[in-house]
Amino acid sequence: MNMEWCASLPKLELHAHLNGSIRDSTLLELTKAFIGKGVINFSEMEHIIRKYNRSLEEVFKLFDLIRILTTDHSTVTRITKEVIEDFASENVVYLELRTTPKRNDSVEMSKRSYVEAVLKGLRSVTSVDVAFIPHCEDSDRIFTPLPAINGHVRKRIFVRLLLSIDRRETTEAAMETVRLALEMRQFGVVGIDLSGNPSIGDWTTYLPALKFAREQGLCVTLHCGEVPNSKEIKNMLDFRPQRIGHACYLGDEHWRQLKSSKIPVEICLTSNVRTMTVQSIDVHHFVDLYKAKHPLVLCTDDSGVFSTCLSKEYKIAADSFGLGRREMFELSRNAVEYIFADSRVKEDLRKVFNSVAKSMEV
Ligand SMILES: CNc1ncnc2c1ncn2[C@@H]1O[C@H](COP(=O)(O)O)[C@@H](O)[C@H]1O
Ligand SMILES: [Zn+2]
């Protein structure tokens, strides 16, 4: 599959972690700024940053490093801005960006001020139009190209936020995240994600917060089956979240339950291969789910950490599973139905696909 075609295809990204999507260049720059402060050893860190295949445990070591480097408000704002620009540049027309609100007393950061720093990042993007406040989006504008500046028509990207609960957190901290998400709905927060190192933490810890989120009308997506844990996978499917991510270690009974539930799955091919949660791309469960016409969406997970981008994920899927332009176009278009934003946004996105179908030669 032609990479340029994949890049020009309008795409929806529904599973991207903010700090996992950090640019390599920014990560190295931030690391250098920490040299001499005695906190980290640069050559050791450079080695981890540049390493290609990392186990799931090593990936979480890298996330701990990223956490040290990105603790102040201005860095959070900067990374957000860059991540939006990067996704928009490859024709992502709708991005659901997830991030874990963090409290850090040493820089007077609260979970709330962390999210405010993210919002500042969204507002500071100038190279593309970012539509993130619900109901303020003038739906006509997406089809009426804005006045061209130097011959370029400005791009537009819808952005919505998911607040993540980290599996290291307590029930109370998870509740705080949900309450914050509810207060921030007016700024485009649409749901809650459960993520973090899948080998730690107990599902029941977060259940009260997840139930509360759902009662209050927030959508929920769960990292499910990144490690073998049959009981947890079953409990997660029983909970019936609006979507799940990964779904690598599902047993036969889980597959039956998943398929009959029709819960959409966020598929992260490169992430799964690099962290070795699937043996190789040709045995990836994408094939089984795709053949069963199960709701699916291709996502990056951590484009920075795994050196990928959404266009690459589309190309990998097309090349590995023998899908043509028509199939890839439909795969991308179908994702519209699984977004957490409201029906007006869905309607706008459907129009985007209809308007480009001809020029995409499908
Ligand atoms: C590889 N698969 C994965 N499985 C589980 N959680 C993951 C993840 N990739 C990323 N995260 C979660 O997202 C955080 C980074 O973004 P934010 O600081 O929230 O913006 C990581 O620290 C981890 O908690
Ligand atoms: Zn993830």
TrEMBL record:
Q: Which cofactor does it need?
A: Zn(2+)
Please list the GO biological process terms of this entry. nucleotide metabolic process
Looking at the record, the residues that make up the Adenosine deaminase domain are: 10-351
Q: Which GO terms describe its molecular function?
A: hydrolase activity; metal ion binding
Q: What is this protein's name?
A: Adenosine deaminase domain-containing protein
Reaction catalyzed: N(6)-methyl-AMP + H2O + H(+) = IMP + methylamine
Question: Which is one Pfam family of this protein?
Answer: A_deaminase
Q: Where are the transmembrane segments?
A: none
Alphabetically ordered keywords of this record: Hydrolase, Metal-binding, Nucleotide metabolism, Zinc
Give the family this protein belongs to, as stated in its UniProt record: Belongs to the metallo-dependent hydrolases superfamily. Adenosine and AMP deaminases family.
